[in-house]
Amino acid sequence: MSLGMMDLMRRKPAVEAEEVTGAERRRSVRQASLLEVAKMTIGGHSELCRLRDVSADGLCAELYCPVTQDERVIIELRTGHIIEGRIAWVSGGDMGVAFASAMPITEMLSHCSFDGRVTTVRAPRLDVDIAATLQVRHFAQPAQVVNLSQSGCKLLLDDYFDADTPCVLQIEHLGALEGEIKWWRDREGGLMFDEAIPYARFVEWRRALNPHWRAADEAPPPSAWFPPEAQEVEDSAPAPRPMRLFGQRGGALAKRR
């Protein structure tokens, strides 16, 4: 077999969502256990979430903050693509989002985006207003973080630093973040961390800043974005275990007592 033919086989495109419909489409394009971080915006407020299952019609995401069923939500992927939808269900620490229309989700998740305006992949950033301390060599001074992701941040500071200057950023509840100043102009600077902030650590930081958020109840994740009872009869997967609603704890145990 020629090298050209082998290359074509390796690059064989995935099945397009338009080729199949209904349950068959969900089974063919669903990508389970993605664990890719995205940004969700609800009512003008943004937080991160972690994608679990996706399909052309919707997705399931892991949450660390409370949301309400039927709210409109905007999901921004790492590739820069934006998807609008509605929160179809909330269970434990997960939510299901039904898209407003069928989306080419496989292409949207790909680094080789079909949208020519999207040329880079970067960690989703949150707009924040957080006091911090920037330490460069033996000098430490206050700074203001205006956006932050798992891999870097932008901050304001009355000083100037050269690019590639090593530094340490101290943020309350998040600790010391070692990295480098990548650019600096007009009192604004961009930092890249030496190591990305683990998602679990990021979640604990956001919850520490928002103590009114109740930790999500643990529950087995649903098998897809759509509610368990909406699965077709022909699906061969066993019926999912009953799930508690978001925030409910120990209801069954209390009844037994």
From TrEMBL:
One of the Pfam families matching this protein, by short name: PilZ
InterPro entries hit by this protein: PilZ_domain
Source domain of life: Bacteria
Domain PilZ: 24-105, 122-193
Name assigned to this protein: PilZ domain-containing protein
Chain intervals for the UniProt region annotation (Disordered): 217-257
